Amino acid sequence: QVQVVESGGGLVQPGGSLRLSCTASGFTFSSYRMSWYRQAPGKERELVASITKDGRTTSYADSLKGRFTISRDNAKNTVYLQMNSLKPEDTAVYYCRALWVKDYWGQGTQVTVSS
Hints:
Blueprint: E1 3-7, E2 10-12, E3 18-25, E4 33-39, E5 46-51, E6 58-60, E7 68-73, E8 78-83, E9 92-99, E10 103-105, E11 109-113
Parallel strand pairs: 2-11
Antiparallel strand pairs: 1-3, 3-8, 4-5, 4-9, 5-6, 7-8, 9-10, 9-11
């Protein structure tokens, strides 16, 4: 059974940091490109960051470069999103996606940036 489970969301003050985790099972994690997306209320889902299956290449939304870092640990079947200098506009549900021969999504984790 395929599972993609995000964790680490929560309430954080502006300027703070969070690290999201996404742990997968039921498929060959190391063969999949992994990505983080987010969806704010009333907005479309947008790509935040991606990482290749071997972790060597990453890409980011232009507006997030320098604040967010994606990484992965294939031994733990986990991908991470380190988010620094958070702003209220980063408030969204953050989703993890695994893409290769199949397309798997997690249920999302809420991140709220507010004082």
